[in-house]
Amino acid sequence: xxxxxxxxxxxxxxxxxxxxxxxxxxxxxxxxxxxxxxxxxxxxxxxxxxxxxxxxxxxxxxxxxxxxxxxxxxxxxxxxxxxxxxxxxxxxxxxxxxxxxxxxxxxxxxxxxxxxxxxxxxxxxxxxxxxxxxxxxxxxxxxxxxxxxxxxxxxxxxxxxxxxxxxxxxxxxxxxxxxxxxxxxxxxxxxxxxxxxxxxxxxxxxxxxxxxxxxxxxxxxxxxx
Length: 225
Description:
This protein is an alpha/beta fold. The chain has one domain: Alpha-Beta Barrel (TIM Barrel). The protein contains 9 helices and 10 strands. The protein is globular. It starts with 10 loop residues before the first strand and ends with a helix. It comes from Selaginella moellendorffii (Spikemoss).
């Protein structure tokens, strides 16, 4: 892979989510695997002082920092609340804002407006095309998924994240998405090693993947052949 910053072959990890860890533990991860990690997504509650410390640590290792898991909740307060959220993230040092597109709190057409709002603040936009509705996975037809992704790219989204468990997002949909949108504009969430192994086998080391931090060494070995 190319040196960082990369547009393909990116590995993004999640910050504390199922367990808590602080800046010292993150520093240990980045000391051993920082050159392999491109992005860090924050999803958990923590103090602003700890958040700033962890963001600064990530930046020192050339890692961009993304929000995650909050954007769709903030949308319940309308556009004004979301704009304040974006400003707060910018002030804290975030580089990228993520938000779910399947949400019953706001009209889907407004997500294009939200993408432009994020870009106007000088941040990168990362819509998440989660195929999740009413507690169950629901797979729209391939045409709908592709058109939604293309609309977001047209609105200025930098990358689109997709839930990619292979029993949910079919392989033919993945192939069509990559063909129409481009490998550099997609990042696939791989919850298990068997999923990212499949992506590396079928699309090579340049595919962008979102994995648990504990899987980074295994993923890096696969990328290296």
